[in-house]
Design a protein that fits this description.
The chain is α/β, with parallel strands linked by helices. The chain has 7 helices and 11 strands. It is globular.
Length: 255
């Protein structure tokens, strides 16, 4: 049977990591946890499982994940975030793949739990992710919302079952993450020479809300769907506001 490494990066994930590690029992031949010096109980929880626990300074999302892939024992990797867990159906699908002669590049749907509600609309589902891959042909790229880059083209198999994503437990967490991600995104856009007009600043959030809440049926998720769409629209506004601030701070034209 082909062998598979599970790769996870962590920082203060005591609420999530046990659930993640429990979900991969029975399919993992190797588990690597690369931790950016958590100050909570993440390390102690991980050490209750048979994992290779490694600490290193935070390198950024893509670079840290690439480092974690490099220290994995096997070339075939299943990459998970600490706040994710395999559903039983998805776990069964992966086991079936492992029973073949060789592993395959695979994607699966990700279903997000937002403050206790499962979000199935608004662009948050099915949220397909390629997470099972051959590390010798694959690298993570991107500043945020990192994506896999393949050196050679691959065929991707879609697996049944969901990756369960426990995203935010409180609204404060969502707002904090939005603030953090929009700062990173604005700096990235600024570095690429991208600009945001006043019209873009004002209109883009409205378009984002209309698309997610109405066109992508976010309203079907009730209050949670409205909240997700509203904060996503706010994050769009915040990103462009911060981008314009970067230009004005540095004395450059923002138009």
């Amino acid at each position: 049977m082909p062998q598979l490494s599970i790769v996870i990066i962590t920082y203060n994930e005591e609420k999530n990591i046990a659930r993640c590690l429990e979900s991969v029992q029975g399919i993992a031949d190797d588990i690597v946890v690369v931790d950016s010096f958590s100050s909570d109980q993440t390390e102690n929880i991980c050490k209750k499982y048979n994992v290779n626990f490694i600490q290193c300074q935070w390198l950024g999302y893509s670079a840290t994940k690439n480092f974690a892939n490099e220290v994995a024992k096997y070339n075939w990797v299943l990459s998970l975030d600490a706040d994710e867990a395999l559903s039983e159906e998805l776990k069964t699908s992966i086991l079936k793949i492992k029973q073949g002669d060789q592993l395959l590049t695979c994607e699966f749907n990700r279903l997000t739990n937002y403050c206790g509600s499962w979000i199935k609309h608004g662009g948050w589902y099915p949220d397909k992710k390629i997470r099972l891959f051959d590390r010798t042909n694959t690298k993570w790229g991107g500043i945020i919302h990192e994506e896999l880059i393949f050196e050679k083209p691959v065929s991707v198999v879609h697996l049944n079952g969901d990756c369960l994503h426990y995203s935010y437990y409180t609204l404060e967490q969502h707002y904090k993450q939005a603030d953090n991600f929009t700062t990173i995104a604005a700096k990235d856009l600024y570095g690429k020479g991208k600009k945001a007009s006043l019209a873009k600043l004002l209109i883009s959030p409205v378009i984002k809300f209309i698309r997610d809440y109405f066109m992508k049926l976010g309203f079907l998720d009730g209050v949670a769907g409205y909240t997700v769409s509203r904060i996503s629209a706010y994050a769009t506004y915040l990103k462009y506001k911060k981008l314009r601030t970067l230009y004005s701070t540095n004395g450059a034209s923002i138009h």
